Amino acid sequence: MTLRTAGSVLVVFLxxxxxxxxxxxxxxxxxxxxxxxxxxxxxxxxxxxxxPSGTVTSTFWFTKNDAAGKVSLSDDPDYKGRVTYRxxxxxxxxxxxxxxxxxxxxxxxxxxxxxxxKWRYTGKPGVTLSVTDLQVKVTxxxxxxxxxxxTTCTLTDNxxxxxYKNGHKVKEDTSSLYSDxxxxxxxYSCAVKGHEDLRTPAVCKNCWSVTYTHQSICAxxxxxxxxxxxxxxPSxxxxxxxxxxTKWSGKDAEDLNSLPGYEGHIEYLGDKKxxxxxxxxxxxxxxxxxxxxxxxxxxxxxxxxxxxxxVTDLQVKITTSMFSxxxxxxxxTCTLTDNxxxxxYKNGHKVKEDPSSLYSDxxxxxxxYSCAVKGHENLHSPAVCKNCWSVTYTHQSICAxxxxxxxxxxxxxxPSxxxxxxxxxxTKWSGMDAEDLSSVPGYEGHIEYLGDKExxxxxxxxxxxxxxxxxxxxxxxxxxxxxxxxxxxxxVTDLQVKITTSMFSxxxxxxxxTCTLTDNxxxxxYRNGYKVKEDTSSLYSDxxxxxxxYSCAVKGHENLHSPAVCQNCWSVTYTHQSICAxxxxxxxxxxxxxxPSxxxxxxxxxxTKWSGMDAEDLNSVPGYEGHIEYLGDKExxxxxxxxxxxxxxxxxxxxxxxxxxxxxxxxxxxxxVTxxxxxISH
Length: 682
Fold this sequence. Notes:
This protein has 682 residues and is an all-beta fold.
C-alpha cells in the first residue's frame, strides 16, 4: 500500500548508434533509433544538433501535431508533470520521461528553430520508444516447469533478471528463463535488477494469498491514498468477483461500492488477474478503518487479512519551556507513511522545511504557527498562537460548478483565555451588524456550518446557484472581543464550450468552462452525445463538420453537462417521444436543443397548432395561463412543465426556436392524458 510512490529510474545511454539526417547544414543526431524499457520506469532520450549559423531559440521534443503545429511534450496533457528537458552541452539535448506508461510507446522527434522563426528543423526518423510490463509465463510438465520473465519487446539494456519463490529471492541471471520443481502451493514472480519495485504479479498453481505493500498506513485528511495489494489463486480458477470491504453483513462481506458515502470516493485500480489496489480520494477522518480485499473464483472464496488505515488532520501542539519563551512545536498525530517533508509557517510565512515534524522557536504572544506537508500545502493545520486573532482560508478565491457542492475551508485563532460565544458566515452588513447567512432568506437547507467552537470554520454550500457568487466572510464573537476575516471570493459557473476556429482548415480548439475550477478537475468531452476524451486540460482539438455537436462535463459531475455547441447544426431532442400521464398530475416534457454557435436566440416557445404561417405560442392560447411553465433557457434546455393535467391536454407538443438568422421546430412529442391508472406504463 502506498501513497503514490515514484517509479523506478531506467536511464538508457546508447552513444554508439547514431542517426544523422540533415540538409544545408541542419541536422539532428540521435543516440539510438529504438529503446524498449519498463512500464513505471524513467527513460532518457538524447540528441545533438547542428545548424549553419545564427542562434537557436526554441528546442523541444514531440510526438503529435495540433492545429498550431508540433506539440511540445512539456505542453502535452498526457505527459503533464512527467517530462524534463535538459541541455547537456553545446548543441546537446536530453528528454527525460518519468513513470512510463504503455501509452507512451511512440516515435519521439527533436525540433529546433532559429531566432528569426523562419528556419525550423525536425530530426528524422526519431527514436522509437516501446514500453512493456513484465509477465511470468509457465511452460512444462506437471511438476518440472520452465518460467519465462516475458516482455512485449526486448529490453534495451541487457538486464539481469531476479526470480522470487514464495516472495524470497532465489536467482539472478542474465537469462529470462528459470526452471524448478513446482509444487501446487509455490508462487513465482520476477523483476529486473535495479527495478526491483517493478516486480511482476506472482503466479502459482494452487495458492491463495492477498499481500499488502504495507499492513498499516497513516494519511492526511483531504489527500488521496492508494492501498497497494496483489493476490494469487489457483491457475485453473477464474475470478468471478473482486472487491474491498470493512464490515460483514451476516455471512457476506459488504462491498464498499454498495455502501452510502463511498460513491465517487473510492476507485478499484486492480484487475481480475493479480492487482487489487484500492484508491480512496478526498480522505475523511471517518475513513479510518480496517480494510480487507475479498475475491470469489469459480471454485472458492478468499479474504485477505485486515489492513489498517488511519486518517489524520494536522494539528500543531506546543510544548513550552518553564524559564523562557522558547517553545517546541509538533505537527501531526499518527506518523505519516510516506516519510514526508514538513513545512512550517510563522504568521502565515514559510520559515522551514524539514523531514522532522518538530520545530523550535522563540514565541511572542502575537505569533501564530501552522504546518503542512510538502505536496499537500493546501491541507494546512489550523494556526495556533498565545494571543492572536486570525481567520485563515485554504483558498482566497474559489471557482465551482453550478449545481455542485463546495466547502470553503477555514481555520481561526483567538487568545487562549477567551471563550467562543458565536461563530457564523456572512456576505452583507445590516447596519453595524453582520447578517448571519443562516437567517438570510434562500439559504435555509442550502448552507451547512461544518466548523466548531475551537479552530475549524469550514462552510459547506450545496446545490450551488449562479447567484451564490459573492464574497464570504467568517465572523466570531468571544467572551472578550469580536473578529472577522477578509472575504473569500466564490465564483459559481456553469460550463460553456467556446470554439476557436482555424483560418485555413476545419480544425477547431474547444475550451470547456469560464473561470478556472479550483479542484483541478478532469474534463470529459462528448461529440454528438458520445464520450470521446477525458483529460485534465479544459482544451480539446478536433476536425469539425457542420453537423457535429460538442459538449463537456467534469468527472464526478457528469450530470452537469454544458450545453452542446456546433458550427451549423439544428436539433431538438426529447427524452421521450411519447408520454402517457394521469389526469390531475404534473408532467415535464424534457428537451434539449442546438443551433449554430454564431446565432443568438431571439425567441423560444412550445406550440401544438399553426395559425397561418406562424406557430401559436402556448403562453398566448386561452386556457394555458398558469397551467404551463417553460423551465428551459436561451442556451440548450427547452423543458416544458404542464400542471393539473386535463384530458383535453392530450396533443402533439412541439418546441420552436427563432434566432436572429433562422427558425426551427422539433418533431411532435405525443402526450396522452388518461383518467385510468391501468393505461399508465412504467
